[in-house]
Design a protein that fits this description.
With 186 residues, the chain is α+β, with helices and mostly antiparallel strands. The protein is 40% helix and 22% strand. The protein contains seven helices and seven strands. Strands 2-3-6-7 form a four-stranded antiparallel β-sheet. Strands 1-4-5 form a three-stranded antiparallel β-sheet, covered by helices on one side. The termini are far apart.
């Protein structure tokens, strides 16, 4: 009797058709999800600070951190307002997490990762002499509307006689002839 019941259960489960869960997922349209952010593409872009070259930007930023690790770095790093009002509207559709994440969630994620990355970066800079030995850049810039982004693979410093690479600066951007750090993360 148990064998018949067992065979019946197996046949019942085998005959059930399961729906493919991927068919139920609706693609997220970032243009709908972020319609308010898309409108910000039309705002005039105002950024404070910036430097004429990406290398000068990083050198001056490292000097400022070495001099005062608790300082205000808004002239080197895009402020949250600059990021969310002027830069991120142009990154929509480039396959970033912003395409599928609600803005408030994304904003808190970016801010917390920026804080963690900045703490780690400040620690590396203060342990060094503050001078950049060399920078390894990824070869291809990316255009985001009026912005051009470049990613450093690593920035090398001398710490206690050893060369170390720091990778917390994820992207620097060029707008209107001036460079600023856009993304910092651990």
């Amino acid at each position: 009797m148990r064998q018949i019941l067992f065979i019946f259960l197996i046949l019942t489960f085998l005959s059930c058709k399961q729906k493919d869960w991927r068919e139920e997922i609706q693609p997220i349209d970032y243009k709908v999800l972020h319609s308010d952010l898309m409108k910000k593409r039309n705002l005039p872009i105002n950024i404070q600070g910036g430097y004429a070259s990406k290398e000068l930007l990083l050198e001056e930023f490292f000097k400022a951190v070495k001099k005062n690790p608790e300082g205000d770095f808004d002239s080197y790093i895009l402020t949250n307002k600059e990021l969310f009002d002027h830069f991120f509207p142009f990154t929509l559709g480039f396959g970033t997490a912003l395409d599928t994440t609600p803005l408030d969630t994304y904003q808190s994620l970016v801010e917390s990762r920026k804080q963690m990355g900045l703490e780690k970066l400040i620690s590396a800079i203060t342990a060094s002499d503050g001078k950049i030995l060399r920078i390894s850049w990824r070869p291809e810039p990316r255009a985001f509307g009026p912005w051009t982004g470049l990613k450093p693979d690593a920035i090398y410093l001398k710490v206690k006689g050893n060369e170390i690479g720091t990778e917390e600066i994820k992207q620097v951007v060029l707008y209107n002839g001036l460079w600023k750090i856009a993304i910092i993360a651990p």
